[in-house]
Amino acid sequence: MNNDPKLNDLLKWSINASTTTTTGDDSTPQIQAPNAEALAALFGNRKSDAQLMQEAMLVINSQDPVVTPDDRLTAFDNFEQLVENLDNANNMENLALWPPLLRLLGHAEPDMRMYAAWCVGTAVQNNGKTQEALRNKGSDGLPALLNMAVTDTDKSVRKKAIGAISSATRNYQAGLDAVQAALPKDLAIEQKLDAADMDSVDVLINKLREHSARLE
C-alpha cells in the first residue's frame, strides 16, 4: 500500500467526490479541490506540449555530433505527432517554430526535407489559422513547397511536398490562389480553381502528381 500522504489525500478527495450527497433539494455539494501537490505526485512534473515541441525542434536542428541522424528523425516523428493537435499546431506561431521548420525544406538530406514537408502538411491540415500562417511566410512557405514538388530529385520528398500543398490549399482560397499563380508556365492552369471544391483543388494536385511521375 502506498503511504505517500499526498496520494492518500488525493484518494480521499476522489472518494468524497463520488459519495457526497446533498442536504436538501436545492443544495449544491461543496467538494474541496484536490491539493496541487497531490496532483503533482500522481501525474509527475510532466512537460507541456509546447516544451516538447521546442525540444524536438532543437534536436532536429542540433549541430552537436552526439545527435545522430536517427535522433533527428525520431524528434521529427515526435514533432509531427504533436502538431496533429489543433492547439499545438496553432501554437507554432507563438513559439516561433515556423521559421526553423521551413528552413529544413531546403536541407541537404532528403529525409530531412521529407519530414519537414510532412510536418508542414500535418500542421496545416483542416486548419485555416495555420494555413494562413504558412502563406504569410512568403517565399519560405508555399513557394518553397511548390519548388520541392516540381524540382526535387527525391520521389518521397516530392510526394510529401505535394501532400503539404494539398493540405495547405483545401478550403483556403488565398493559399490556392498563391500556389496557382506561382506554377511554372508548363504547369499553368488557366481555369480559376475553387478551394471549397475538392475536385477543383484536385486539378492542381493531380497535375503536380503527374509531373512528379514523369521525373522518375
From TrEMBL:
The lineage of its organism: Eukaryota, Fungi, Dikarya, Ascomycota, Pezizomycotina. GO terms for cellular component: endoplasmic reticulum. Residues 7-92 form the Nucleotide exchange factor Fes1 domain. It holds the Pfam family Fes1. It comes from the Eukaryota. One of its GO terms (molecular function) is adenyl-nucleotide exchange factor activity. Functions as a nucleotide exchange factor (NEF) for Hsp70 chaperones which accelerates the release of ADP. Required for fully efficient Hsp70-mediated folding of proteins. It comes from Pseudovirgaria hyperparasitica. This is Fes1-domain-containing protein. Belongs to the FES1 family. InterPro entries: ARM-like (IPR011989), ARM-type_fold (IPR016024), Hsp70_NEF-Inhibitors (IPR050693), Nucleotide_exch_fac_Fes1 (IPR013918). PANTHER family: HSP70-BINDING PROTEIN 1, PROTEIN FOLDING REGULATOR. Keywords: Repeat.
